[in-house]
Design brief:
The chain is of the alpha+beta class and 430 residues long. It has helices spanning 5-15, 23-38, 41-44, 58-75, 86-92, 122-128, 146-157, 172-181, 191-198, 203-224, 233-247, 305-323, 332-344, and strands spanning 79-83, 104-108, 114-118, 136-140, 163-166, 186-189, 252-257, 278-284, 286-287, 290-291, 294-299, 361-363, 370-374, 387-390, 393-396, 400-403, 406-411, 414-417. Strand 9 and strand 10 (290-291) form a beta hairpin. Helix 4 packs antiparallel against helix 9 (191-198).
Length: 430
Amino acid sequence: MSFNRRKFISLTALTAGTLGVSNRIFGAGLNEAENEANLPRAIRDLQPMVAGIVPITVEERKQRIAKAQELMAREKMDAIFLEGTVSCFYYTGMRWGQSERTFGVVIPAKGSLTYVCPKFEEDRAKELILPVFGDEIRCWEEHESPYEVILGIIKDKGVVHSRIGMEERVRFFIANGVKKLATGFDIVDATPITAGCRMIKTKAEIALMQKASDATIDAYKAAFTSIHAGMSQTELSNNITAAFKKLGFSGGASVQVGKYSALPHGSITPQTIREGDVVMVDGGTSCEGYASDITRTIVVGKANQRQIDVWNLEKKAQDAAFAAMQIGAPCEQVDAAARAVIENAGFGKNYRLPGLPHRTGHGIGLEGHEWTNFVKGNKTPITVGMCFSNEPNISIPGEFGIRLEDCVYIAEDGAHFFSKQSIAIDQPFG
């Protein structure tokens, strides 16, 4: 049954006085319509772009589980345990979350998955679990130990190496609870398994990330038409959120203005845009869980020469980072290439300001930040299927900051941008 807004407003108006329904309910409906009418024309004209989205298939998730089991054999682990968070979703298509009660899944080196669940939640778990990956649920009552259940599953699946992997988001009290019971077992880091799978994206994953990136650019383009002197950062941020909503996505962006753009993750200080200010917008959305992360930096009105010069240097650093993304090269090479451009122009070395205060990029996928990073000391070779942000940043405290951020995927023929780079300080969308 579809929701009829007109009937809702009429009913609310009729009953607000007689039944004690809050006038705020009625007002909320009108305010939403008024807010829509007050949006810039470019945002109002946006159309949903969710057609053609293809979720990850059951077959692909089966392949992920099989790869995890291959990696477990290589790493000499008998099983790994995941709570109901992102990695659980990656393998099973199911999210649960975390509470004080242990819920999770055991992926054994051989055999099907088994879920660990509070007994009173069993029926809800059955609704969410896809039996194709394993339909066994072992429950624990409130007075019982979930850690005994986890260890019992692993023993029943077969023990060869006496090594149990804990995914990095498993909380200490759970890992420690299993450790206390698992005499003769080593409790080890499961990151070689989870990162070993998640770090390499398939074409299906890259397609979802492309859709998220496309939506982000379209939302930014529409919202940027509204930028004007006297506008608050909150108003611009709200316009970006509204643009995502019109496109059919839930997304948003932070906005930092003037000297606050020199703080890479911004300031809580309320800010108003003025003529000649640098404006930095950093945000994104997700598609079937797969993230985008894009930053655009512009100047409102006419940029001065100092702003243009630093912007151009930032673009040069981003180009250098991209050129260094060669298959087989160590990830640290990318950071070194971007950093050299900025440092050779006279900015600070080794993260000192003014200069580049952070790594050049991070992995991206089901999480906005995941494995692996473009950072000094990371010898991980760049491999087909990896996805990264490319975001060198020039911060000049007390003055302004310039960051250009576009994400990249590594294909068989090398690196490709998900989004077109900015061309110039007054041409942010390629």
